[in-house]
Amino acid sequence: MATTGTQAAGGEALDAGLQLVVPAKSLPAGAGMDWISGGWKLFLRAPLMWIIALVILFVIAIVLAFIPLLGSILFQLLQAVFAGGLIAACRSLERGGEFELEHLFAGFKVRFVPLLVVGLIFMVASLVLLLLFFLVAGLSLLPAFMSGDPNVMSTALAGSALAIAFGSLVMLALFVPVVAAYWFAPALVMMHDMSPIDAMKASFTGSFRNFVPFLIYGVVMFVALIIAALPFGLGLLVWVPVAMASNYVAYRQIYTADAAAAPATRPAMV
After folding, report:
1. Which region holds residue 224: left if phi is over 0, alpha if psi is between -120 and 50, else beta?
2. Using alpha carbons only, how large is the chain's radius of gyration in Å?
3. Which residues make beta-bridge pairs with 13?
4. Which of 46, 125, 139, 193 gives the lowest tally of CB atoms within 10 Å of its CB?
5. What is this structure's pTM?
6. Where are the alpha helices (DSSP H) in 5-111?
C-alpha cells in the first residue's frame, strides 16, 4: 500500500497498514461507547504524557492570550495543527509505541499548511455564525447598550429574550454541521494527506452517517464532563485527553480498514 509519507517517531509512515475508506462507514449505536472505552485505553498507556501535553497546550494558550486579539486568533488557528500532533501520538500508542513530546508538535513538521487551513476555515465559519447571532438577537440591543443606562439595558434584555433565544437556536442548528465538518478533518489530513476541503467534506459525511453513535457519545461525555469538573476541575486532566483519544478511535473505526483486508486501491473522493 502506498503511504502518505507522514512518518511516526520510529520512522514508519503513520498510515502504514491502513486503508482509507471513503465514503465513511456507518456504525451501530454502540460504537459511541466503543470510542470512549478506546480513548480511555489510549490514555492509560501514557497518562503522564497526556497530562504533560495538556498542560503545555494550556501554557501556550495563556502566553498567547497576552498578545491582544492576535494571540487568541493564533491559538484558534493552531488548534487543528496541535490536533494533528495528538493524532500522531495516538497512532504511536496504538502500535505499541510511546507518546513522545515531539508528537505534540508533529503537525508543525508535516501537513502544517493544510492543518492550518482547516483551523482557518473552522474559525471563520464560527465567526460568521457568531455575527449571524448578533444580527438576529443583538441589533435590538445595540441602542440600549450605547445609552449606558443600566435600567434601559435590563429592560431591553428582558424585552429581547425571545429574539436571543431564537438567535441561539439558529446558531446552534448551524454550528452542528460546522463542527461535524471539522471533527475528523485534522485526522484525515494528518493520516492520509487529504486536502483541507476534501477532509472537511469527508468529516461532515462521516459524522452525520454516524449520528446515533455520536448522540450517545455526546451524552455520555457530557455527563462525564460534569463529573470531571466537580473536584476543582482536576478531572479535566483526564477528561480532555480521553476526549482527544476517543476522536482518534472514532476516526479509525469510521474511516479506515486494515490494508491486508482491504482492496489495493483507495476509493475516490465523492
Report:
1. alpha
2. 21
3. 7
4. 139
5. 0.83
6. 31-45, 47-65, 70-94, 101-104, 106-109
Peptide bond into 241 cis (omega under 30): no
Q: Write the CA distances from 28 to 34, 35, 115, 191, 228, integer angstroms.
A: 10, 12, 30, 24, 27
Distance CA 148, CA 136 (A): 22
Contact 137, 166 (CB under 8 A): yes
AA letter at 95:
R
Cβ proximity of 191 and 139 under 8 Å = no
Kindly report, residue by residue over 142-192, the tens digit of the pLDDT. 666 666 667 766 776 666 677 777 777 878 888 999 999 999 999 999 999
d(CA 58, CA 193): 28
Per residue in 219-269, pLDDT (tens digit) is 999 999 999 998 788 999 999 999 999 999 999 999 998 766 544 444 333
